[in-house]
Amino acid sequence: MKKLFVFVFILTLPLFITAQTANLTDYVGSYKFEGAPFEKIIVSMEGATLLAEAEGVGKGEIFSSKNKDEFTEPNNNAVLMFNRDSNGQVISLIVKVQGTELKGAKEGDAKSEYLGKYKFAADSAVPSMTVSLKEGELFGETDQGSAVLKPTAKKDVFSVVGYDGSAEFIRDTAGKISKVILKVQDMVMNGEKQ
After folding, report:
1. Kind plus residue range of the DSSP H or E element containing 158
2. Highest mean pLDDT among 46-60, 100-114, 137-151
3. 4 in Cβ contact with 24 (< 8 Å)
4. 15-19, 117-121, 165-169, 170-174: least confident range
5. Mean pLDDT across the stretch 154-170?
6. How far apart, in whole angstroms, are the C-alpha atoms of residue 34 and residue 66?
């Protein structure tokens, strides 16, 4: 029995390591700070090691603590706390170092501006659609199904893969995404970004 346990443990160890590594990718990115001694902190991965580099300060490994989304950086005796939005996406970073608390916003790629939940009218076929980023692609999910949203030649318009439809994102006067028009199977649904 002991041999069976060791064999099963050895087989599942790579899965555990892969899951831990995939989780760390949530934190990877560039965080922009204002009023700090540095402009950015870049969080990167080398293998299964998470690193943080503050411009002009240096680069060092960060270690997870007992609290979720919290890491320590021993070289500068710093605590890094990552914050998530309602969709579970990491959006900001708070660095506590030498009695100071510095806040930085995650700089996303162009796709990140589409992320969020869009609520449709009460009489729509689906109540809402959540747009997330999975493996670098936009992904739309409703209670009726989910699909990759593939960019088209037209800005802010995506094809709904597998559903012969489209999702057109609408911007407000400030240029921020505020709505979506989802066209799927002869239905047109207008959704407000929450």
Report:
1. strand 157-160
2. 137-151
3. no
4. 15-19
5. 93
6. 28
Helix (H) or strand (E) holding 2: helix 2-24
Distance (Å, rounded) from C-alpha 93 to C-alpha 9? 35
Q: What gap in Å lies between CA 62 and CA 43, rounded to an integer?
A: 9
User: What string of DSSP letters covers 68-95?
Assistant: TTEEEETTTTEEEEEEE-TTS-EEEEEE
Residue 112 identity (one-letter amino acid): S
- Report the chain's terminal Cα–Cα distance, integer Å: 53
Place of tokens 């997330």: 132
**Lowest-pLDDT choice from 23-27, 103-107, 122-126, 180-184:** 23-27
Q: Are 40 and 52 in contact (CB under 8 A)?
A: no
Residues 41, 44, 46: CA angle, nearest 5 degrees: 145
Structure tokens at 187: 């239905």
Both tokens assigned to 161: 């893969």
Beta carbons of 126 and 142 less than 8 angstroms apart: yes
Overall size of the chain counted in residues: 194
Q: What does pTM read for this prediction?
A: 0.48
